[in-house]
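2024-03-11 09:14:02 INFO worker-7 job=invfold-0412 stage=load source=structure_tokens
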């Protein structure tokens, strides 16, 4: 039985660069539909940058952002303060403004680790082979 991919807006938010993409997720298989890089400092707020990316497009029902900085809130973090920008990012406010059914904020290192299951063997490179114990 074939499943319908879930469309997710994903982002890597950093002090220098922010990369946003709309990804079709089908199990562990990912397909990039659209992607764009931004100079983070060109925008006063993340909401402004995100609005630019989403302008005139079909908004995905889900969003997840890896953010360089601490994530606050009980359970799944709902608010982030970027480390090298004056941006305060609130998941609830993003959901309301852009109409996401679900919006998650993760620390950028946590987000990277969460993506590991989507990698294939050819995505890895052994820098120095070890000897098994």
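2024-03-11 09:14:09 INFO worker-7 stage=emit residues=133
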């Amino acid at each position: 039985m074939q499943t319908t991919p879930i469309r997710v807006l994903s982002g890597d938010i950093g002090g220098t660069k922010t990369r946003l993409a709309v990804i079709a997720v089908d199990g562990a298989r990912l397909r990039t539909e659209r992607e764009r890089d931004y100079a983070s400092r060109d925008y006063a707020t993340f909401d402004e940058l995100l609005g630019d990316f989403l302008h005139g497009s079909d908004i995905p029902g889900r969003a997840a952002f890896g953010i360089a900085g601490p994530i606050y809130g009980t359970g799944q973090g709902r608010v982030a303060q970027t480390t090298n920008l004056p941006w305060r990012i609130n998941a609830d406010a993003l959901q309301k403004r852009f109409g996401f059914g679900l919006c998650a904020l993760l620390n950028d290192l946590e987000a990277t680790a969460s993506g590991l299951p989507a990698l294939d063997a050819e995505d890895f490179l052994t820098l120095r082979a070890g000897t098994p114990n």
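2024-03-11 09:14:09 INFO worker-7 stage=report msg="The radius of gyration is 16 Å."
2024-03-11 09:14:10 INFO worker-7 job finished
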